[in-house]
Amino acid sequence: MDDGEPTILLTNDDGIETTGFRALYDALTDVGEVIAVAPDSDQSAVGRALSNSVTVTDHELGYAVTGTPADCVVAGVESLVPDVDLVVSGCNDGANLGAYVLGRSGTVSAAVEAAFFDVPAIAVSMYVPVREDVSSEAVRSEYDAYGEATRAAAYLADHALGAGVFESADYLNVNAPMASGEYGPLDDGEHAPLAITEPSRVYQMDAVRDGAEIQLYDRIWERMADGDLPHENGTDRQAVVDGKVSVSPLTAPHTSEHHEALDALAETYPV
Length: 271
Hints:
This protein is of the alpha/beta class and 271 residues long. The chain has one domain (7-202, 231-267): 3-Layer(aba) Sandwich (Stationary-phase Survival Protein Sure Homolog, Chain: A). The protein contains eight helices and eleven strands. The strands form two sheets. It has a nine-stranded mixed sheet with strand order 3-4-2-1-5-6-7-11-8, sandwiched between helices. A two-stranded antiparallel sheet has the order 9-10. Helix 1 (19-28) packs across helix 5 and helix 2 packs parallel to helix 3. Residues 8-179 form the Survival protein SurE-like phosphatase/nucleotidase domain. Nucleotidase that shows phosphatase activity on nucleoside 5'-monophosphates. Belongs to the SurE nucleotidase family.
């Protein structure tokens, strides 16, 4: 770090030109030096997909990359921003909630990729309710709507490193409600509190066939919009429905545990 201020690599999966990305960039400049290394186009829901090579173009905020969020982290940490102290990914215009979403999300996958480089990371998303009276397009373009997400992200970026948060967590998955306004759940001048959570385990994917076509649905979003969640105190989903900023401290996936039953199978394997 230079003079105590962190060097922050900022990426996302929606693309470098999106409103949420710019809002988060602006908020983080009060914390440290921010260098953007982000996709030049929408790369939503690509998970940790990786390319063999990418093209990098100079951008007013840093660098635009013809690749995925994981590409951006690898290129950034290993080439473009080698002295990075923190990777921040977002702000996504839509929540990344639930254990099953973690591997799908490009936003979260950027944070996971950073964890494998031993670089602390924060994934930041804004919850947009799936309701008929909420225009997702209007929310995406509304700079102020991201206010709660960027406020929480800047606070965590400023304090989590020094507080030792990343001694036991590889990355933080942050999901915030929309700020006060036409669609937000908060009153003017009101801020959402932070809630430390764990990912929800509720899984309600559905598939409906119509002839040769099968439509896939994630039913949990409809239940969230109606406030009809199963009893999930302490989870990320419950927190955002309650108007709080969910912060889940997580570790990089694929940890190994000892399994006696599997050991027994290995012992009886015919050779």
